Structures are given as C-alpha cells and as structure tokens.
Amino acid sequence: MSAVDIASHPATQALVNRHKLRWWEPIPWILAIGFFFLFPRHLGFGNEMLVMVLFALSLDLVLGYAGIVTLGHAAFFGIGAYTVGMLARHGIWTEPLSGLLIAAAVAAVFGLLSGFVLLRTTGLTLLMLTLCIMLLLEEVANLAQEWTGGYDGLDNVPIDPIFGRFEFNPLYPTTQYIYILCILFIGFLIVRTIVYSPFGESLTGIRENTLRMHAVGAPVRKRLVISYAISAAIAGVAGALWAQSNAYVNMSTLSLDRAATVLIILVLGGYGRLYGAFVGAVAYMVLSHYLAKLYPTAWQLGLGLMLMVIALFARNGIIGIFESLVARWRGKPAS
Amino acid sequence: MAGIVLGGLAAGMVLFIVSVGLSVTMGLMGFVNLAHGGFAMIGGYVIVLSMNRLGVPFVPAVILGFVLTAAFSVVMERLFYSKLYRAAELDQVLFSIGLAFVMIASVIIIIGPETQPLILPSWLRGQMDLGFTTYRTYSIFLIAVGGLIALGLWLGFERTRMGAQIRAAVDNRKMAESLGINIDRLFTITFAFGSGMAAIGGGLGAEFLGLDPQYTLKYLVFFLIVVAVGGLGRITGVFYAAMLIGVMDFVLKKYVPQGGTAFIYALTILILLVRPQGLFGRKDA
C-alpha cells in the first residue's frame, strides 16, 4: 500500500486550520460595539448581557468541552461578586482591575479545591454535589450578615475609577460597558486559545470517551480539575464585573436561578461551540424581556416550551439549527 | 421530645411518598427528572381543588389525584420522556426543567398564582391521645399512611413479579431486556406509578408545605437530596433517607431556624463524598 500523503490530506488540513479565525468571527464584536452607539439608553441591559456572555463562556469550557454537567456554576459567579463587594465595602480594596484578578484567584482556588473532591463523582451524584455546594454558599452568605449583608446584600459598593480616570456612573453606564466589553474580549481570547490547544482537545476527548482517554494514558481527572478551576476563575471574573458595574452584591449572584439562567443561555445558543454563549445570551435576554411584558406572571411558559423543543429536537441550540440550515443549503449533510 | 420526633416523622413520610417515585424513575430509567415536583404539584392541585370546589370527600379526592396525575404522566412519558431515555443527562435535565417551567406557567394561567389551602375533614382535625402523649391527629395520620405505603411498596417491590422485574432492570437493564422483560411497558407503568405517588405526597403535604405553582421547584432540591442520599432505586434507602432528612429538618427549624438548611446541605455533601452511590445504594448500581 502506498503511503498516503498525510500532510496534504483534507482531514489534516481541516485539523491544522481549526484554530484559524473565520471570516464571521468579528461579527459579534462589531455588533457589541454597534450596540454601544445605537442604544445608549439601554447600556444597563447591555452590561448584563455581556456579563452573562462571559459567564456562559466559562460554563461552556466545563460543560460544552469537558462534558462536566454542573447545576451549581453560580457558586463561582457569586464568589467573584462577593469577593469584590466585601473587599470594597470593608475598605480593603477598591481598585477595579486588580479586584478582578483577586476575584479570579479566589474563585480559582475554590474551583480547584472543590473540583479536586467533586470530580471523582459523575452523573446524579455530581449534579447533586454541585447543586448542594452552591446552595450551601447561598445559606452561608445569608448567615454571615456582618460580612455579606445577609439577605439584603451589600449596596453602594465603592469602586475606584479605572486607571484613576474613568469613573463608574450607575446612571450612565458607558464606562462600565466599554470596561466589560474589553474584559469579555480578553476572557474570550483565553477560552478560545484553551479550547484549540492540545489541552482543550484532550478535554473534548474526555467528554466523548472517558474510558479511551484513560486507556491512552491521559491524566483525565487532573485535566478535568484544571479545566474546572480555570472555568471557575472566569466565572468569578464575570461575577466581579457584575458586582462592580451594579455597585452592589446580593444573594441572587449565588442562586439556583442564576445557575439555571446561565445553563439555559448556553444551551439556547449551543454549547461546545464558543459563540453559543453570545447567541444564547442575546436570545435569552431579549426573549425573557418580551415574554415578561406579554405574560407578567407566567413568562416561563415560552422559555419552558423552548427548552423542551431544544432538548427533544435541536440539541445543538440556535447555532446548531443555523449550521444544519447552512449545510442543507450547500447540499451537504450536517457534520 | 416525642412531639418533635412525631412532627419530624410526619414530614419525613411526605418526603418519602413524593421521593420514592423519583428514586425509581432515576434508578430504573436513568432519567434525571427535574419535573417530578411538577407532578406532585399537579396532583396536589387535583386533590385540593376537587375537595374545595367540587366537594369531593378527602379519600376519594386523594385517589382521584393519584389516577389523574398518573394518566397525565403516561401521556408525557409516551410523548416525550421515552424519546430521551438514551439521551445525554444534560438533555434530560433541560427537558425536565423546561417541562417544570411549562407546568408552573400553565397553572398560573389556568388557576392563578395564589396558594391553595388544604381543608382537612373533621376526623383529621384536632389532637389525638396516644397514651404517652397527645399529638396532632393529622400528623399521626400521615405517619400511619406513610408507613402503610412504605410497607406496601416494600412488599410489592420484593414479593411480586413486577417488583422483581423492576429490580432486575435497575440492576442490569441489558440483562433484563435479554430475559424478555418488556422494558417499555415496565417504564411506562413505573413512571405513572411514581408520578401518582408524587401526587399523593403533594396533596397530603399541602397542609404544611403549602401548595402553589412554585411548589414545583421549591422543594425539588429536598426530593433530590432524599433520592441521592437514599440511593437510586432503593425503596428502603429512600425511606430511611426521608426519615433522616425529615426529622433533622424539623428539629433544626425548631432550634436553629437560621442555619438549619445550611446544615442539611453540608450533611448531604459529606454523605455523597463518602458514599457517592448514597447511603443505601449499591456500589455498582
């Protein structure tokens, strides 16, 4: 059998080019910048959306790529938010950028420790453990009133101007928007680099076939724990951004509501595909906004139906639907 | 002291009645059904509304709740759940959260968001003299009913052909299938039965847990804790876990109203870390 020219084989080319930027990748960023100029009165809404994109990206890393199903990812979001909030409110640290790093570090340490213990388990046990740890933290935040403000949370959290120049103004959150967009961009680059790295490929391998990854000698648990810690750090930054841009922290940052919301956002957009977080966050925020207007008391109806449809028929979310449409249009079966 | 134990046991019985179906569903079908609380809520509504608005007596109302909820769950199982048995855990989680949302919203639209009171018949009101202490009649009734249901389920599970089939399917589904057990039918019946039990639990517990559309998700974590701690598909495990959690929750709420729930979460985490398969689950299950 003659040797196949592996280097020029289409499959090799596809693998080599996987990480290259595609023509449409700048589009979400252009839209995000466009939003700033087109809707100056809705920047608060925009801030929330960008923060949730970053949060959903962090979840995508563990859920979409490593296949760790967690119901308690808001634990890290809340830890980041409370880290920034408590440090600022108790007069210890009010500088925003380094505050993000501290929040990331605290969340990463917590992710590392909890991941080390939790990721021995799978399935229902893992679901329950992630859920219980988040609920436990929520209770602790409620009980440690002196530090966390208990049920009411901490308001009027003081935040220094960025670089000593750009002030946060809750009424005109322009600084916040640019700040969050920049951090989101950095966070996105980090996640994108990770998922196309050999480390990221091995995470996908673990998701697809854990047994086989064990068999080829990959340190499965170590990689899962590391990805969990990185994801925790990014979720912590998202929480810290939320606390800084709103100038308050409350228990909603640690709640099952937030954990469910970020899961829904990611799945709505499409998990394991980087831009799912963007599409999902926009779709979710816009959808829930209009549903809440239509049915003030029963807005979950549309959302619930949508989740059922996605779970039954469109497991790859909105992006997945789009991909199969494109594939059909080109006359090729969806890959 | 006796009063606290009795109160806790009554709460534990309700937890058991609701959770046992969830345990079998998750154990037998491997389905993470986060809409289980929704079936309990719907059943509770059937029971309470048929009593309050149609004047159906208590016992027939409970039976009606069981039957209607079981019938509804058969439709759901055939239409949707059966399509997802082999799907990824995440898809099951999403589908069932979605279904729970739809249940909440539908009840709000059709009946309204307010709490529905369970008005007990006169023979269940007041106190009862037990000899060593007097206690609320309804709590004693709950303990008796829960105990009977537990005994009946245990006998049915251990002593009947159907029970043996379910146990076989929980332990090794492929083997059970190759022995000619009709898994599809078994699943449908079990699912209907589990949802029916949830309905009874929803109705009987409405007196102290309250009953409103949000019930669907409000107590879900507790049901899940009971199942996870008890071990999947183990009737006795779920029973002991429900008693443990029920009594502890009751005692803690009495003495440390602030930190009680935190303690239960912490205990659950500890138990699951030491025994990921639950206190009474088998290692290979």
Automatic annotation (TrEMBL), chain A:
<dbReference type="InterPro" id="IPR001851">
    <property type="entry name" value="ABC_transp_permease"/>
</dbReference>
<keyword id="KW-1003">Cell membrane</keyword>
<keyword id="KW-0472">Membrane</keyword>
<dbReference type="GO" id="GO:0015658">
    <property type="term" value="F:branched-chain amino acid transmembrane transporter activity"/>
</dbReference>
<dbReference type="Pfam" id="PF02653">
    <property type="entry name" value="BPD_transp_2"/>
</dbReference>
<dbReference type="InterPro" id="IPR043428">
    <property type="entry name" value="LivM-like"/>
</dbReference>
<dbReference type="GO" id="GO:0005886">
    <property type="term" value="C:plasma membrane"/>
</dbReference>
<protein>
    <submittedName>
        <fullName>Uncharacterized protein</fullName>
    </submittedName>
</protein>
<keyword id="KW-0812">Transmembrane</keyword>
<keyword id="KW-1133">Transmembrane helix</keyword>
